[in-house]
Design brief:
The complex is a heterodimer. By secondary structure, chain A is an alpha+beta fold. Chain A has helices at 5-13, 24-40, 114-122, 293-299, 316-319, 330-335, 353-368, and strands at residues 19-21, 43-45, 48-51, 56-60, 72-75, 78-81, 88-92, 127-132, 143-148, 155-163, 170-172, 179-181, 184-186, 193-195, 218-221, 224-231, 254-259, 268-273, 277-285, 287-289, 307-312, 326-329, 337-340, 343-349. In chain A, strands 3, 4, 7, 10, 15, 16, 17, 18 and 19 form a nine-stranded antiparallel β-sheet that branches. In chain A, strands 6-5-8-9 form a four-stranded antiparallel β-sheet. Chain A has a three-stranded mixed β-sheet with strand order 1-2-20. Chain B is of the alpha+beta class. In chain B, the strands form three sheets. Chain B has a four-stranded antiparallel β-sheet. Chain B has a two-stranded antiparallel sheet with strand order 5-8. In chain B, a hairpin with a 5-residue loop joins strand 2 and strand 3. Classes of the chains: A alpha+beta, B alpha+beta. Chain A binds chain B through residues 49-51, 107, 109, 111, 184-185, 187, 191-192, 194, 269, 271-274, 279, 281, 334-336, 346-355, and chain B through 87, 89-97, 105, 108, 110-112, 128-129, 131-133.
């Protein structure tokens, strides 16, 4: 018989809810079947931890005296966008300092950037704010140099436009030279295969059609609580799917929001990718209510049942040409070697499975203690029925509306 | 006779010894198996050599005494590369660049990256490959 989220929440309040992580449920369903799982299990907790470039933070510093309309701002020399109200800025995870040599001496190191500023703020360290403006009658100040600390900010919240990717590419390099990518260092002649997903623990891989994860869903974000605020950028529900409904390539994404003051740098870290840039590793955990047998089936998906496309980051990917070399399962990826074009290739992961598991376990304990109730989504994010795709950019230098 | 496990040491030798066949002597006079895993000569002609040595304990002790007498300083390589455990997320990006599997995952259920210091040759490739800046050289 189907359950409701309200019924599950009543059991959580009484500390009687039955909760498994997305890893634990695999064995339980194998032993007990879907019917029993749907009756006995209330919640399955998921987790993921990896670099998620489309992340950043809105900060409000309050007004200095005299007041200032911050036009341009730098936090520890990393540019923050000030083209919003007076003392609000947005700092993006991938921003680098103006004087960083980037890839002028290839491969650049990218030791510090927006992701690290966000980590420093969450760690409670003082961060140096430099700001400039043109000055107005109401906001006369033109320059500002001061240390700031998250505890003194009015608001500091992450707003990450694209996180929690539902599946992702496995990157290889078919060229004769080492290449440096956002999926790490790729050795020549398919010397390694790098991936970035928590597989069976990953939130959207456990809710392939977004039945319970939607706008308003309460989540674990960076060690605190947050919400799914929208579909993520590049959300692609019509991506190719296997018979089990699970996408076999990058598909759904979510936009998430959460209070940085609650966060903990164990679950949110600045990232330096050699030859690529900086980013932010984000920890996300989402509880999935086991409302019926269909959901029990979805959450019991295992690494063996999730396939990811192997893509050449030396040729087809940068040119945006189609071409998947093969598909491999997360079970094989996690075994340490996969077979690509008849060759055994060592695998490396950019996302951390141990931290993904720790997030799922932490979220499970929050729910067990009655401190985290499940939320009903207020609206769904687009599913396959929407027909929504991830379109490429067509370059057209001429032919604007005027012509 | 006890056989010592293979170990990696880093030798630092001064300019005046640059033309001496020291490694050759270690092999021929002391019956030590030597594998050179890294070699560098600085601009001042001082040299750094990382070697993997194995052999009978008696021979290795005598060989190391020979190096000391010559005035060559050495230390185990595991003391050169350090993992900052609180920064390591166990992602495994390092495992595909480490040439000796000193950084590797043996338990594929837990998926935690182990740092086996005895296998480390101090090449330093793990340092820039780590997205979380968890590896450092303390040379």
């Amino acid at each position: 018989m189907a359950k409701t989220i309200q019924e599950i929440n009543e059991r959580i309040k009484k500390k009687k809810a039955c909760i498994f992580t997305a890893e634990e449920i695999v064995g339980y369903v194998n032993e007990n079947g879907l019917k029993k799982a749907s009756e006995q299990v209330d919640v399955v907790t998921t987790g993921t931890f990896g670099p998620m470039c489309s992340s950043g933070a809105f900060l409000n510093f309050g007004h200095p005296s005299p007041r200032m309309k911050i036009q341009k701002a730098w936090l520890n020399d990393v540019f923050a966008y000030g083209g919003i109200a007076a003392c609000d800025v947005y700092i993006g995870a991938t921003e680098i300092p103006d004087d960083d040599p980037a890839n002028k001496i290839h491969p650049g190191r990218f030791r510090y950037g927006g992701g690290h500023v966000i980590e420093d703020l969450i760690a409670g360290r003082d961060v140096f704010l430099r700001a400039t403006s043109y000055g107005t009658d109401c906001y006369p100040r033109k320059k500002l140099d001061t240390y700031v600390n998250i505890k003194d900010l009015n608001q500091a919240f992450l707003l990450n436009p694209r996180n929690g990717y539902q599946n992702y590419n496995v990157a290889v390099n078919t060229s004769p030279k080492v290449i440096y990518t956002y999926l790490g260092i790729l050795q020549p002649h398919i010397g390694n295969a790098n991936y970035c997903s928590a597989g069976q623990l990953s939130p959207l891989l456990n809710d392939p059609y977004y039945r319970t994860i939607g706008i308003g869903t309460k989540i674990f974000l960076g060690g605190g609580t947050g919400r799914v605020s929208w579909e993520g950028t590049q959300h692609n529900p019509t991506a190719e799917r296997g018979k089990n409904g699970v996408p076999t390539e990058g598909a759904g994404t979510i936009c998430v929001i959460g209070d940085m003051k609650q966060m903990n740098t164990r679950f949110i870290r600045g990232v330096s990718m050699l030859g690529y840039g900086v980013s932010l590793a984000v920890g996300i955990g989402i509880p999935i209510p086991v409302l019926d047998e269909e959901i029990a089936g979805f959450v019991s998906v295992s690494d063996a049942d999730i396939l990811a496309p192997v893509v050449d980051y030396a040729t087809t990917y940068p040119k945006r040409e189609p071409g998947t070399i093969t598909k491999v399962s997360y079970r094989d990826l996690k075994s340490g070697t996969v077979t690509i074009r008849g060759k055994k290739v060592p695998t490396g992961s950019l996302s951390s499975y141990p931290l993904a598991k720790e997030i799922a376990v932490t979220l499970k304990s929050w729910i067990q203690q009655g401190g985290f109730l499940l939320s009903e989504k207020v609206e769904s994010i687009p599913g396959p029925e929407s027909g929504q795709t991830f379109k490429p950019l067509v370059i057209r230098p001429e032919g604007g509306d005027e012509s | 006779m006890t056989q010592n496990p293979t170990r990696n040491i880093m030798l630092h030798y001064p300019r005046k010894l640059a033309d001496k066949p020291i490694i050759s002597n270690l092999i021929r006079e002391y019956d030590i198996t030597v594998n050179i895993t890294r070699a560098r000569i600085d601009q001042d002609e001082e040299g750094t050599l990382v070697i993997e040595i194995s052999g009978k304990k008696k021979n290795i002790d005598a060989g190391l005494d020979y190096l000391r007498e010559l005035g060559i300083s050495f230390k185990p390589v595991s003391k050169i590369i350090r993992r900052i455990d609180e920064r390591c997320t166990h992602c495994s990006a390092c495992t595909v660049v480490c040439p000796t599997a000193a950084l590797s995952i043996s338990d594929r259920e837990r998926m935690e990256v182990e740092f086996v210091e005895e296998k480390c040759i101090g090449c330093g490739l793990c340092i820039p490959s780590c997205p979380y800046m968890a590896m450092e050289m303390i040379e």
